[in-house]
Specification:
Layout: H1 3-6, H2 10-22, E1 26-30, E2 41-43, E3 48-50, E4 54-58, E5 61-68, H3 74-90, E6 94-99, H4 104-113, E7 122-123
Parallel strand pairs: 5-6, 6-7
Antiparallel strand pairs: 1-4, 2-3, 4-5
Protein name: REase AHJR-like domain-containing protein
């Protein structure tokens, strides 16, 4: 999710956090009240900062989660996903995408465009 959309979709973000808590994730960080803010990364090629929507741990492994909702700024979302996927592979972490009803096709299309077909979105 792009930073501007986080304020509009805090309800879905909180629903996703509850889902992750129920499935055994710990040390959850999110840009929501009551949780610590996840670490931001600087993308040197463009000079933009990239912040994952949710960061959590399970069985000693760090997971980056990004929420996929329909947006007009597909290129920003694509570059964020590629960056987070590459970063997670470098540090032996995991990168997952969370989506909801009405956004499945949009998410699948973006994943195919990025050639990230090995990713299966978590459907809430």
């Amino acid at each position: 999710m792009i930073k501007k959309e986080k304020q509009e979709n805090t309800e879905f973000l909180e629903k996703s956090i509850k889902y992750l808590e129920n499935t055994g994730f710990e040390n959850i960080r999110a840009d929501v009240e009551g949780y610590d803010t996840p670490k931001s990364f600087l993308k040197k090629s463009t000079g933009t900062t990239v912040t994952p929507d949710i960061v959590a741990e399970k069985n000693g492994r760090k997971y980056f989660f990004d929420i996929s909702l329909k947006t007009d700024k597909e290129n920003l979302l694509k570059s964020k996903w590629l960056f987070l996927d590459t970063l997670s592979r470098l540090k032996s972490n995991r990168f997952k995408i969370i989506t909801t009803r009405g956004h499945y096709k949009f998410t699948d299309t973006l994943l195919n465009d990025l050639n990230l077909t090995n990713k299966t979105p978590i459907r809430i």
